[in-house]
Design goal:
The protein is mainly α. It contains 24 helices and four strands.
Length: 490
């Protein structure tokens, strides 16, 4: 067992870098190990990197998608870049409905900017985000007939969750109805800036039959009187007041509901599905998230916790390792970064195999950025895996390792592997080391790879100086590892 002062081993460093970024480059692992860095020191460095805020715009969603992928391949702040992907899933908004690439680009910029910032401020910013206002119909929420879409998803998906960790409801339908009133009359201008039209807003004096603007009379620990969000008057301030009340909401255990839910989701993202409630409470307490609402300390608390490291393979502490399936975008970007391979041109295509664009590859894998399938985002874990999506991953691996473009668009294993190696076992280890899965493949899988390299033992050594050998056996080894079960998992 360990804590923030535990010195990282090479295997632990690779695990940390894989989960927080896109692959574990050997130089980055060596820096951690040679420097004797602890869990806390490495987490502080990763979380503390100043993010590069990107705005993936383009004249159509296809180009904007490719621009975002290109930035991920090049990012020098992988934790922030990867966390922005998490928020894209958490606050899922699809360009198919928004219909404006610029508004989507502004939202992605917001996700990068606030990825490790204050979560309460983050949610308040999402309230006013034009893409979200379009996607969940805030702009179609009028006083005569309030639209409940955003009020419902604000609670169900973005903050509280339908039920608390004990399975008890966090809100009732009347809370949805009353919160929807707060968001009536909001619109955005041609610059994407949100504003309130008082003439379209629900004021209590105009609709006395709807009663006072009070929420959580049955849940949240506020008592039967609930909490009014008009204590400082009606109008533009109501939507911020609603968020302040939501963040005061307590579950049936007396814990802050938002803090537990966000910590639970981030543990699922970084560690494994279904984290124990005790672990959720420990990272919240260690970070002070339930009072400060600062995301950076919460992420740090997760990355130094033993539960994060029990997901390694082989599992430490005598625990059973719980693995997570890589998101398709993680699989693609990690592969490109580790192979030092660039996509080509406007289409961001691989220069091998079918010469397909990264957009087409990711479509086939089941994840197109800027266009999640619903307000619920993507289905994680086994939801990423089917016969069709696995085949799409294998096709990507084939195309990547057969890329024969020019310069950085060509796969060049001779730049990645020591060509003086001749022992098949050492060559296999060099490939799995570079791809970061040596700790995860079984002895049987390693033997299978050696068998492939030697044609079942017929050729006991390999001459990597021979271009033909490289183009067949070495490229093939890379493809097989990229297609292996171990490489699909964290």
């Amino acid at each position: 067992m360990g804590d923030e002062n535990t010195v990282l081993t090479a295997a632990e460093a690779r695990h940390l870098l894989r989960r927080t970024g896109f692959g574990a480059a050997a130089d980055d692992v060596d820096r951690i190990v040679s420097g004797g860095e602890t869990r806390g020191q490495t987490a502080d460095r990763l979380v503390g990197m100043k993010p590069k805020v990107i705005r993936p715009n383009g004249k159509d969603p296809y180009l904007a998608h490719n621009k975002w992928i290109r930035s991920l391949v090049k990012t020098r702040t992988p934790l922030n870049s990867k966390l922005a992907l998490f928020w894209h899933d958490h606050f899922a908004t699809a360009v198919a409905k928004v219909g404006d690439v610029g508004l989507m680009a502004d939202q992605i910029k917001l996700f990068h900017k606030m990825a490790t910032g204050n979560f309460k401020d983050f949610v308040k910013a999402v309230n006013r985000n034009a893409a979200m206002m379009e996607f969940l119909d805030t702009v179609r929420n009028f006083k005569d007939e309030p639209n409940e879409n955003y009020a419902r998803e604000l609670q169900e998906l973005f903050t509280l969750g339908v039920n608390d960790l004990a399975g008890n409801p966090n809100y009732v339908q009347d809370d949805v109805v009353q919160i929807a009133r707060a968001f009536t009359g909001w619109y955005y201008d041609r610059h994407g800036d949100a504003a309130l039209d008082p003439d379209s807003h629900d004021f209590m004096a105009d609709f006395p039959e709807r009663g006072p603007k009070v929420i959580y009379q049955q849940t949240g620990g506020f008592g039967s009187a609930g909490r009014s969000y008009t204590a400082n008057g009606e109008g533009a301030g109501e939507i911020d007041a609603v968020i302040d009340i939501i963040f005061q909401h307590s579950d049936t255990d007396g814990k802050k509901t938002v803090a537990r839910r966000v910590a639970h989701r981030l543990l699922e993202f970084y560690a494994h599905p279904d984290p124990a409630t005790s672990v959720v409470d420990e990272v919240v307490a260690a970070s002070g998230f339930d009072t400060s609402w600062e995301l950076a300390p919460l992420v740090r608390a997760i990355l130094v916790h033993d539960d994060f490291y029990t997901t390694m393979a082989p599992a430490p502490f005598g625990a059973t390792s719980q693995k997570s399936v890589k998101w398709p975008v993680d699989y693609v970007v990690t592969t490109l970064r580790l192979l030092d391979l660039r996509l080509r041109g406007r289409d961001q295509s691989l220069q091998g195999g079918n010469y397909s664009s990264v957009y087409d590859h990711l479509t086939n894998m089941g994840q197109v950025l800027l266009d999640p399938p619903s307000v619920f985002g993507w289905d994680w874990e086994t939801g990423w895996i089917s016969t069709a999506t696995l085949l799409a991953r294998y096709t990507f691996a084939r195309d990547a390792t057969s890329a024969r473009g020019h310069g950085s668009t060509s796969f060049r294993p001779d730049r990645l592997i020591d060509l003086s190696l001749s022992d098949p076992g050492e060559i296999v280890d060099a490939v799995t080391d570079l791809l970061g899965v040596t700790d995860q493949i079984t002895a049987g899988e390693r033997d299978t790879l050696i068998g492939y390299a030697t044609d079942g033992g017929v050729n006991p050594t390999l001459n990597l100086g021979d271009e033909a050998v490289r183009n067949t056996k070495l490229n093939g080894l890379f493809a097989l590892v990229l297609q292996s079960p171990a490489y699909q998992l964290h």
